[in-house]
Recover the amino acids of this structure.
């Protein structure tokens, strides 16, 4: 027997039709979504919805399709990483990061990743499948539940978890629209970051969607010779063409593009790399985000030391570029993409009961 569908697999129109079929007014849809946005963990908790309707919802739907199978904490409780099992058996990770002025969710869009970057833990295991839009949104709703207990609210979402978001384009765009829906989570698109390793046609398509998200390019190298190795899709979409497409997105939306640069000691943290980056992004609406490598087992890469990170940052700034170093979070929580999945699969962590 198939499991009940999750409530968020229905669109607003579909839920309103279901309500009409059950002699309930369409405004009940907004009530249900409001309760989800508050972190309700069951239909029974939706107190202003009539009990008969709550019971009917419970008979026909699930609150979520995600089943948490492992959780790890880091940074004195400021970082929480959850591994969810999906319908069908695949699993994905989501990371909640708490800061003084915001709470951010790093969200997954695929189970696994088809891109195969050699420094990424996600690329070490077979690709599973694309997530449905509701499975992406459910990660955010789970984060809302977690944060609501602490008196916090989810304010930012970054599509930088497992998967290549642009390779699951339709579901990602639909999930962004639902995350920003004022009747659901009401997260401003300007507080949502969608990353890509470089699918140029989808970048161009995203610029026409009228959803002003921040575009992040997983760059990591400024010359084709090196990027072909670090980001294999570069062989199809070379780096200069990629930056041109990203600048086209910036021109169309007025949104500054973020260029992500995972720092690999002795690989892409040299003076040459900084100068090449300066040439590549000259006069572009760009921000460079340096990310110290989060070590992954069975890879030849290592993280630079702090002095090397400061030195490379200064070299990039000398190219007249805006640059920051990302706050390193969750190393003991296996917070790099795919690490908790790998650890659980190796039976090193006791699953959630």
């Amino acid at each position: 027997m198939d499991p009940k569908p999750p409530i968020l697999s229905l669109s607003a129109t579909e839920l309103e039709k279901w309500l009409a079929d059950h002699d309930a007014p369409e405004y009940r849809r907004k009530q249900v979504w409001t309760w989800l946005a508050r972190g309700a963990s069951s239909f029974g908790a939706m107190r202003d919805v009539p009990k008969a309707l709550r019971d009917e919802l419970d008979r026909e739907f699930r609150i979520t399709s995600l089943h948490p199978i492992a959780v790890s904490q880091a940074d004195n409780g400021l970082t929480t990483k959850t591994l969810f099992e999906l319908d069908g058996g695949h699993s994905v990770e989501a990371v909640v990061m708490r800061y003084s002025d915001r709470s951010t969710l790093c969200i997954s869009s695929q189970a696994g990743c088809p891109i195969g970057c050699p420094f990424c833990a996600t690329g070490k295991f077979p690709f599973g499948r694309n997530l449905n839009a509701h499975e992406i949104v459910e990660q955010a709703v789970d984060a809302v539940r977690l944060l609501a207990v602490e008196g916090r609210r989810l304010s930012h979402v970054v599509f930088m978890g497992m998967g290549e978001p642009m390779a699951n384009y339709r579901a990602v765009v639909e999930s962004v629209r639902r995350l920003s829906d004022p009747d659901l989570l009401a997260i401003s698109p300007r507080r949502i970051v969608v990353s890509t390793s470089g699918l140029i046609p989808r970048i161009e398509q995203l610029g026409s969607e009228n959803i002003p998200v921040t575009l992040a390019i997983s760059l990591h190298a400024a010359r084709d010779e090196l990027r072909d190795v670090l980001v294999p899709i570069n062989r199809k979409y070379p780096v200069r063409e990629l930056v041109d497409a990203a600048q086209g997105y910036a021109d169309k939306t007025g949104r500054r593009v973020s260029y992500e640069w995972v720092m690999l000691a002795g690989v892409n943290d040299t003076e040459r790399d900084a100068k090449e980056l300066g040439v590549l992004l000259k006069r572009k609406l760009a921000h460079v985000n340096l990310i110290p490598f989060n070590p992954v087992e069975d890879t030849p890469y290592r993280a630079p030391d702090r002095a090397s990170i400061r030195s490379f940052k200064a070299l990039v700034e000398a190219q007249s570029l805006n640059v920051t170093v990302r706050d390193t979070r969750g190393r003991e929580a296996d917070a790099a993409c795919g690490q908790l999945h790998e650890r659980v699969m190796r039976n090193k962590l006791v699953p959630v009961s």
Summary: The chain has eleven helices and twelve strands. Residues 50 and 101 are 37 Å apart (CA to CA).
